[in-house]
Amino acid sequence: MLQSIRDNSKGIIAKTIVGLIALTFVLWGAESLISLGSKEKPAAEVNGEDIAVIDLQRGVELQRRQLLMQMGPDADPTQLDDNLMGRQVLESLIEQTLLIQSAKRQGLFLSEQMLDQLIVSTPEFQVDGKFDRNQFEMVLRNAGLTPLMYRELLRKEALTNQERAAFILSSFSTPDEVERVVRLDQQKRDLAWVRLPLLQLLNETSVTESEIRDLYEQRAADLQTSEQVVLDYVVLDKNDFVDPSQVSDDEVRAIYEQMLVDFVSEEERSVSHILIEVTDERDELAALAKAQELSLELEAGADFAELAVQNSDDPGSADQGGAMGYLAREALADEFADALFAMTEVGQVSEPVQTEFGFHLIRLDGLRQAEQPTFAESAYDLRLEIAERNAELDYVEKMERLADLSFSAADLIVPAEELELDIERSEPISRDGGPGELGRNSRVVEAAFSDDLLRERLNSLPIELDRERTVVVRVQEHLPSRQITFEEARDELELELITAKATQQLEQQASEWLIALQGGEALAQLSEDYSWVEVSDADRGDSRVPAEIRQRAFAMLDDQAPAFELMQLRDGNFAIIRLDAVHQSDVELSADEMAVMMSLLGATKGQLEYQNRVEGLRNSATIQRN
């Protein structure tokens, strides 16, 4: 039930719990009332209204919980970036606060009765079609919410949705607008382009030392290194405790005997099949007819393998005459498995069986029972399994010891010596991260620049790098921000100057060519090294044309042809585009199609207007992030 809610629900519970809004709503409750009396600095202020730190923390925790649910049972919490989540949640809280303020200014409200009705009508809270209090509390408990919290979440969402709905539902489009949009969407164009590369000019361009130094003098105040730290650290690795040689034969024998008690011999069947897919060119009826035709050929004595090679749409088995080898039931689609395991005789062929892949003719080629593994076959894996289980216990024990030692020690020497760990040293790491695994780990970076490590020079708490490794770090050297020397900046500044000068030269050349082409000259007259790439009947999604050129070509005015435009590409090169012709298509929409298109276009316009409204609220608001 809960998994279904998480994955597929489209109702209110999904919007308020799983959706981004629920992740960022302020969770008003008893703790929030208590926090009002505290002197804690708020996370942000929006038009004078505080966003409490506790609300930000709750939002981050709720988002963390939802992300871990989406990641599944093997989720690794260390992969989540708390800093990134904190920034995202704070920005969403700011936007949510602005929307609530806007709704209140407009006098929007939601009665308690309306809230009650929304809750009792939510399918996820119902059993046998009726609201069930126990179901309601269970769903909220699994989402980390109390009924009061959820009620306030629902109130805020419904309140802000009133304004959003007003924009979307009041916006409309006319038939003329729909026809114009459809015509533009279905329009095709004949076009050509020539790419003018920058690389050759880059190789030919040079700058003087004085030009580089002049640019350095202009930029000197801004050329600063990032504040950095060099870390000493020790890593506790669970794999270091895995020692199969310490596992006795008696332990292995005991596990093996238990494995035999639990062993269930599973039947496997050797199978061949012929697959007839359902495609755009072949619907279900045609695919079934083809499968039935092959079935009749088999009954008449045709060779199964030959028919599979000639007709099967399964590329993995067709070349092998349809053979798939020995398979267990769970490896097959339900319908396929049911048909195969219902057969009683080797060589038997099924009637056409439909699965999500199409229609199958299935032949049973053989049967076998999985045999119990011998002790010799199992001993190595069982010994390793026991060693890994023991290592897990040792690892947890050593983690606790590492935490105690690193907390009480004045450096990393004592923890390293007692736990037989090597003290390693990192490359310099800035607040934005750095090279190596430590520099890419947000928790390590956050700890490294904390007051405890940066100013007090303490050891960090143990930080999990992943499920098998834990690190304790210590600031070995603090590198404050400083001005970059000319020698350090020289190569980068030289490349910048060369690129700017070459780009200017290329743009000037391309502009001269554009004027010449507009004057009627042919490209071949301008240069023998370049030629047009021409495409006819290109539509807005035509993969034959690079996306940025295609987008610009469809933005060109089509009042006369040929038309020319110059553009700089994202990679720094330039391109001249030639528009040769525009082909309009006739628009013929039925009444139903027109109604649907008017509704969709109107809703899209309303959504854009609402987004502009939200952006306007942000631009006009007084926002202070702490």
From TrEMBL:
Membrane topology classification: Single-pass type II membrane protein
Gene Ontology CC annotation, any one: plasma membrane
The organism's place on the tree of life at top rank: Bacteria
Localization in the cell: Cell inner membrane
SUPFAM superfamilies: FKBP-like (SSF54534), Triger factor/SurA peptide-binding domain-like (SSF109998)
InterPro entries the record matches: PPIase_dom_sf, PPIase_PpiC, PPIase_PpiC_CS, PpiD_chaperone, Trigger_fact/SurA_dom_sf
UniProt KW keywords: Cell inner membrane, Cell membrane, Chaperone, Isomerase, Membrane, Rotamase, Transmembrane, Transmembrane helix
Cleaved signal peptide residues: none
MF GO annotations: peptidyl-prolyl cis-trans isomerase activity
Keyword RNA-binding: no
Principal subcellular localisation of the protein: membrane
Positions of the PpiC domain: 266-366
Matches recorded under Pfam families: Rotamase (PF00639), SurA_N_3 (PF13624)
Positions of transmembrane segments: 12-30
Family statement: Belongs to the PpiD chaperone family.
Name of the protein described by the UniProt record: Periplasmic chaperone PpiD
Provenance organism: Nitrincola iocasae
